[in-house]
Amino acid sequence: RVSIASSWVGEERQASVAREMAFVYKALGLLRPGGRLIAILPASIISSESGKWLREVLTTSGAVKMVHELPKRTFAGIEAKTFALVYEHGRPQARIALRNHRLRHPDELFLAKRHFDEDLRMDYEFYEASRWYQNLRSLPDLGWVRFGDVADVWRGEVESPIKSCAVLHTTNFRTFRPTEREERNWERPVRTGDLIVQRVGRNCAASWVPYMRRRPARCSDCVFIVRPKLEFDPLPLLFGLRILLASEKGPHLVQRGIGAAYLTRAVLRKLWIPNGLSEK
Questions:
Q1: What are residue 6's DSSP bridge partners?
Q2: Distance separating alpha carbons of residues 234 and 217, to the nearest angstrom
Q3: String of DSSP letters for 94-126
Q4: Could you tell me which of 192, 199, 207 has the C-alpha nearest to residue 250?
Q5: At 210, is the secondary structure helix, strand, or coil?
Q6: Nearest to 188, CA basis, from 157, 147, 228, 149
Q7: Within 13 Å of residue 236, how many CA atoms lie on the same side as its CB?
Q8: Are 194 and 208 in contact (CB under 8 A)?
Q9: Which SS3 state, helix, strand or coil, does residue 22 take?
Q10: CB proximity list for 111: less than 8 A, separation 6 or greater
Q11: What is the pLDDT of residues 9-37, one digit of tens each?
Q12: pTM of the predicted model, to two decimals?
Protein backbone atom coordinates (compact mmCIF):
# COMPACT_ATOMS: atom_id res chain seq x y z
CA ARG A 1 0.00 0.00 0.00
CA VAL A 2 1.19 3.52 -0.75
CA SER A 3 0.11 7.02 0.22
CA ILE A 4 -1.33 9.60 -2.16
CA ALA A 5 -2.63 13.11 -1.62
CA SER A 6 -6.10 13.58 -3.05
CA SER A 7 -9.52 14.95 -2.20
CA TRP A 8 -11.02 11.81 -3.79
CA VAL A 9 -10.07 9.60 -0.85
CA GLY A 10 -11.98 11.68 1.67
CA GLU A 11 -11.10 15.22 2.54
CA GLU A 12 -7.94 16.83 1.20
CA ARG A 13 -5.33 14.70 2.97
CA GLN A 14 -2.79 11.93 2.66
CA ALA A 15 -4.39 8.51 2.42
CA SER A 16 -3.09 4.97 2.16
CA VAL A 17 -4.44 3.07 -0.84
CA ALA A 18 -3.69 -0.24 -2.51
CA ARG A 19 -0.75 -0.19 -4.92
CA GLU A 20 -2.85 -1.00 -7.99
CA MET A 21 -5.12 1.96 -7.26
CA ALA A 22 -2.16 4.30 -6.85
CA PHE A 23 -0.84 3.01 -10.19
CA VAL A 24 -4.04 3.98 -12.01
CA TYR A 25 -4.33 7.29 -10.19
CA LYS A 26 -0.77 8.20 -11.18
CA ALA A 27 -1.42 7.17 -14.79
CA LEU A 28 -4.43 9.49 -14.98
CA GLY A 29 -2.21 12.42 -14.06
CA LEU A 30 0.04 11.69 -17.06
CA LEU A 31 -2.75 11.95 -19.62
CA ARG A 32 -3.49 14.98 -21.75
CA PRO A 33 -7.12 15.84 -22.60
CA GLY A 34 -8.30 13.19 -25.02
CA GLY A 35 -5.52 10.84 -23.96
CA ARG A 36 -6.35 7.17 -23.54
CA LEU A 37 -5.44 4.70 -20.81
CA ILE A 38 -5.61 0.98 -21.59
CA ALA A 39 -4.87 -1.14 -18.53
CA ILE A 40 -5.11 -4.70 -17.21
CA LEU A 41 -6.62 -4.38 -13.73
CA PRO A 42 -7.74 -6.59 -10.83
CA ALA A 43 -11.29 -6.78 -9.50
CA SER A 44 -10.40 -4.46 -6.61
CA ILE A 45 -10.53 -1.49 -9.01
CA ILE A 46 -13.54 -2.72 -10.99
CA SER A 47 -15.96 -3.80 -8.27
CA SER A 48 -14.67 -3.58 -4.69
CA GLU A 49 -16.00 -1.22 -2.04
CA SER A 50 -12.50 0.12 -1.42
CA GLY A 51 -12.15 1.01 -5.11
CA LYS A 52 -15.30 3.13 -5.33
CA TRP A 53 -13.38 6.41 -4.86
CA LEU A 54 -11.18 5.60 -7.87
CA ARG A 55 -14.18 4.74 -10.04
CA GLU A 56 -15.60 8.13 -9.10
CA VAL A 57 -12.36 9.72 -10.31
CA LEU A 58 -12.53 7.79 -13.59
CA THR A 59 -16.14 8.71 -14.35
CA THR A 60 -15.85 12.39 -13.41
CA SER A 61 -12.44 13.20 -14.92
CA GLY A 62 -13.17 11.36 -18.15
CA ALA A 63 -15.04 8.41 -19.57
CA VAL A 64 -14.59 4.69 -19.08
CA LYS A 65 -15.33 3.36 -22.56
CA MET A 66 -15.09 -0.38 -21.96
CA VAL A 67 -14.46 -2.96 -19.24
CA HIS A 68 -13.84 -6.49 -20.51
CA GLU A 69 -13.41 -9.39 -18.08
CA LEU A 70 -10.54 -11.64 -19.17
CA PRO A 71 -10.80 -15.44 -19.25
CA LYS A 72 -9.89 -17.40 -16.14
CA ARG A 73 -6.20 -18.25 -15.81
CA THR A 74 -5.23 -15.65 -18.41
CA PHE A 75 -2.06 -15.19 -16.36
CA ALA A 76 -0.25 -18.28 -15.10
CA GLY A 77 -0.64 -18.76 -11.36
CA ILE A 78 -3.25 -15.98 -11.03
CA GLU A 79 -6.69 -17.22 -10.01
CA ALA A 80 -8.18 -13.79 -9.29
CA LYS A 81 -10.33 -12.06 -11.91
CA THR A 82 -8.65 -9.57 -14.21
CA PHE A 83 -10.16 -6.98 -16.53
CA ALA A 84 -9.12 -4.87 -19.51
CA LEU A 85 -10.22 -1.24 -19.07
CA VAL A 86 -10.24 1.54 -21.68
CA TYR A 87 -10.50 5.14 -20.43
CA GLU A 88 -10.41 8.50 -22.22
CA HIS A 89 -9.34 11.56 -20.26
CA GLY A 90 -11.55 14.66 -20.35
CA ARG A 91 -14.46 13.03 -22.16
CA PRO A 92 -17.98 13.10 -20.68
CA GLN A 93 -19.08 9.76 -19.25
CA ALA A 94 -22.16 8.76 -21.26
CA ARG A 95 -22.35 4.97 -21.36
CA ILE A 96 -19.93 2.16 -20.78
CA ALA A 97 -19.57 -1.15 -22.63
CA LEU A 98 -19.31 -4.11 -20.24
CA ARG A 99 -18.20 -7.47 -21.65
CA ASN A 100 -18.03 -10.94 -20.18
CA HIS A 101 -15.05 -13.28 -20.15
CA ARG A 102 -15.14 -14.45 -23.78
CA LEU A 103 -12.54 -12.82 -26.01
CA ARG A 104 -14.29 -13.82 -29.24
CA HIS A 105 -17.93 -12.79 -29.58
CA PRO A 106 -18.37 -11.80 -25.92
CA ASP A 107 -21.73 -11.00 -24.40
CA GLU A 108 -21.97 -7.24 -24.02
CA LEU A 109 -24.25 -4.75 -22.36
CA PHE A 110 -24.21 -0.97 -22.48
CA LEU A 111 -24.76 0.83 -19.21
CA ALA A 112 -25.61 4.51 -18.87
CA LYS A 113 -23.94 6.35 -16.02
CA ARG A 114 -27.28 6.97 -14.33
CA HIS A 115 -27.84 3.22 -14.15
CA PHE A 116 -24.65 2.43 -12.22
CA ASP A 117 -25.34 0.83 -8.87
CA GLU A 118 -24.54 2.88 -5.76
CA ASP A 119 -21.00 1.45 -5.58
CA LEU A 120 -20.30 2.29 -9.27
CA ARG A 121 -19.45 -1.33 -10.06
CA MET A 122 -18.18 -2.01 -13.57
CA ASP A 123 -18.29 -5.81 -13.87
CA TYR A 124 -20.55 -7.43 -16.47
CA GLU A 125 -21.49 -10.43 -14.30
CA PHE A 126 -22.99 -8.23 -11.58
CA TYR A 127 -25.29 -6.33 -13.95
CA GLU A 128 -26.27 -9.48 -15.84
CA ALA A 129 -27.19 -11.09 -12.52
CA SER A 130 -29.09 -7.95 -11.47
CA ARG A 131 -31.24 -8.06 -14.61
CA TRP A 132 -31.95 -11.75 -14.07
CA TYR A 133 -32.84 -10.97 -10.45
CA GLN A 134 -35.25 -8.20 -11.42
CA ASN A 135 -37.06 -10.62 -13.72
CA LEU A 136 -37.39 -13.05 -10.81
CA ARG A 137 -38.75 -10.29 -8.57
CA SER A 138 -41.60 -9.78 -11.03
CA LEU A 139 -42.87 -13.35 -10.51
CA PRO A 140 -46.01 -13.26 -8.34
CA ASP A 141 -46.91 -15.24 -5.23
CA LEU A 142 -43.36 -16.07 -4.13
CA GLY A 143 -43.63 -14.23 -0.83
CA TRP A 144 -40.72 -11.85 -1.37
CA VAL A 145 -39.31 -10.50 1.89
CA ARG A 146 -36.38 -8.20 2.57
CA PHE A 147 -33.66 -10.13 4.36
CA GLY A 148 -33.01 -7.37 6.90
CA ASP A 149 -36.70 -7.30 7.85
CA VAL A 150 -37.00 -11.00 8.67
CA ALA A 151 -33.67 -11.88 10.30
CA ASP A 152 -30.77 -10.51 12.30
CA VAL A 153 -27.27 -11.17 10.99
CA TRP A 154 -23.89 -10.74 12.65
CA ARG A 155 -20.31 -11.95 12.38
CA GLY A 156 -18.84 -14.50 14.71
CA GLU A 157 -16.95 -13.06 17.67
CA VAL A 158 -13.66 -15.01 17.50
CA GLU A 159 -10.97 -13.34 15.41
CA SER A 160 -9.12 -15.38 12.79
CA PRO A 161 -6.80 -17.23 12.47
CA ILE A 162 -8.54 -20.00 14.41
CA LYS A 163 -6.57 -22.70 16.20
CA SER A 164 -9.25 -24.13 18.49
CA CYS A 165 -11.54 -26.90 17.22
CA ALA A 166 -14.15 -25.63 19.69
CA VAL A 167 -14.88 -22.67 17.40
CA LEU A 168 -17.10 -23.04 14.31
CA HIS A 169 -15.01 -21.90 11.35
CA THR A 170 -14.85 -22.33 7.57
CA THR A 171 -12.46 -25.28 8.02
CA ASN A 172 -14.99 -27.31 10.06
CA PHE A 173 -18.19 -25.80 8.73
CA ARG A 174 -20.02 -29.09 8.11
CA THR A 175 -18.24 -31.36 10.61
CA PHE A 176 -18.26 -29.11 13.69
CA ARG A 177 -19.13 -30.65 17.05
CA PRO A 178 -19.51 -28.22 19.99
CA THR A 179 -17.77 -29.04 23.23
CA GLU A 180 -19.50 -29.27 26.59
CA ARG A 181 -17.84 -26.07 27.73
CA GLU A 182 -20.28 -23.80 29.52
CA GLU A 183 -21.43 -20.66 27.78
CA ARG A 184 -19.59 -17.85 29.53
CA ASN A 185 -18.77 -14.39 28.26
CA TRP A 186 -20.13 -15.24 24.82
CA GLU A 187 -21.68 -12.17 23.30
CA ARG A 188 -23.78 -13.73 20.52
CA PRO A 189 -23.21 -17.44 19.98
CA VAL A 190 -24.93 -19.53 17.34
CA ARG A 191 -27.92 -21.50 18.60
CA THR A 192 -30.19 -24.27 17.36
CA GLY A 193 -32.47 -22.90 14.65
CA ASP A 194 -30.02 -20.27 13.43
CA LEU A 195 -28.71 -20.28 9.89
CA ILE A 196 -25.00 -20.01 9.19
CA VAL A 197 -23.05 -19.10 6.07
CA GLN A 198 -19.37 -18.75 5.29
CA ARG A 199 -18.58 -15.05 5.10
CA VAL A 200 -15.31 -15.69 3.25
CA GLY A 201 -14.35 -18.45 0.84
CA ARG A 202 -14.86 -19.85 -2.62
CA ASN A 203 -18.59 -20.26 -3.33
CA CYS A 204 -19.45 -18.76 0.06
CA ALA A 205 -22.82 -17.54 -1.26
CA ALA A 206 -23.95 -21.16 -1.68
CA SER A 207 -22.79 -22.37 1.76
CA TRP A 208 -26.01 -21.73 3.72
CA VAL A 209 -26.90 -24.45 6.24
CA PRO A 210 -28.99 -24.63 9.42
CA TYR A 211 -27.21 -24.97 12.74
CA MET A 212 -28.61 -28.23 14.11
CA ARG A 213 -26.50 -28.82 17.24
CA ARG A 214 -28.14 -28.78 20.66
CA ARG A 215 -25.40 -26.78 22.31
CA PRO A 216 -24.63 -23.18 21.39
CA ALA A 217 -21.18 -22.40 20.08
CA ARG A 218 -18.89 -19.53 19.24
CA CYS A 219 -18.14 -18.76 15.60
CA SER A 220 -15.13 -17.22 13.93
CA ASP A 221 -15.33 -13.83 12.23
CA CYS A 222 -15.31 -15.69 8.90
CA VAL A 223 -18.86 -16.92 9.57
CA PHE A 224 -22.15 -15.03 9.53
CA ILE A 225 -24.85 -16.07 12.02
CA VAL A 226 -28.44 -15.47 10.91
CA ARG A 227 -31.31 -15.58 13.39
CA PRO A 228 -34.78 -15.41 11.80
CA LYS A 229 -37.32 -13.40 13.75
CA LEU A 230 -39.88 -15.38 15.74
CA GLU A 231 -42.68 -15.11 13.19
CA PHE A 232 -40.53 -16.53 10.38
CA ASP A 233 -39.80 -20.22 9.95
CA PRO A 234 -36.07 -20.63 9.18
CA LEU A 235 -36.54 -23.53 6.74
CA PRO A 236 -38.54 -21.70 4.03
CA LEU A 237 -36.08 -18.83 4.38
CA LEU A 238 -33.17 -21.24 3.99
CA PHE A 239 -34.80 -22.83 0.94
CA GLY A 240 -35.26 -19.45 -0.75
CA LEU A 241 -31.68 -18.39 0.04
CA ARG A 242 -30.16 -21.57 -1.34
CA ILE A 243 -32.24 -21.61 -4.52
CA LEU A 244 -31.47 -17.95 -5.17
CA LEU A 245 -27.77 -17.87 -4.26
CA ALA A 246 -26.68 -21.34 -5.36
CA SER A 247 -27.93 -20.73 -8.88
CA GLU A 248 -25.62 -19.84 -11.76
CA LYS A 249 -26.10 -16.08 -11.50
CA GLY A 250 -27.08 -15.74 -7.85
CA PRO A 251 -23.58 -15.51 -6.34
CA HIS A 252 -22.76 -12.49 -8.52
CA LEU A 253 -25.48 -10.54 -6.69
CA VAL A 254 -23.75 -10.73 -3.31
CA GLN A 255 -20.17 -12.02 -3.62
CA ARG A 256 -17.27 -9.61 -3.80
CA GLY A 257 -13.54 -10.05 -3.62
CA ILE A 258 -10.30 -10.14 -5.57
CA GLY A 259 -9.13 -13.68 -4.84
CA ALA A 260 -11.24 -15.18 -2.07
CA ALA A 261 -14.89 -14.22 -2.37
CA TYR A 262 -16.65 -12.62 0.59
CA LEU A 263 -20.11 -11.48 1.66
CA THR A 264 -21.05 -8.29 3.48
CA ARG A 265 -23.77 -7.77 6.03
CA ALA A 266 -25.04 -4.65 4.26
CA VAL A 267 -25.55 -6.44 0.93
CA LEU A 268 -27.29 -9.39 2.58
CA ARG A 269 -29.66 -7.12 4.51
CA LYS A 270 -30.80 -5.43 1.29
CA LEU A 271 -31.45 -8.71 -0.54
CA TRP A 272 -35.04 -9.79 -1.22
CA ILE A 273 -35.70 -13.50 -0.65
CA PRO A 274 -38.53 -15.66 -2.14
CA ASN A 275 -39.74 -16.83 1.26
CA GLY A 276 -42.81 -18.53 -0.24
CA LEU A 277 -40.89 -20.48 -2.87
CA SER A 278 -40.93 -23.76 -0.91
CA GLU A 279 -44.74 -23.79 -0.91
CA LYS A 280 -44.89 -23.16 -4.66
A1: 13
A2: 19
A3: -EEEEE-S-SSS--EEEEEGGGS-TT----HHH
A4: 207
A5: strand
A6: 157
A7: 17
A8: no
A9: helix
A10: 95, 96, 98, 127
A11: 444 445 678 899 999 999 999 999 999 99
A12: 0.84
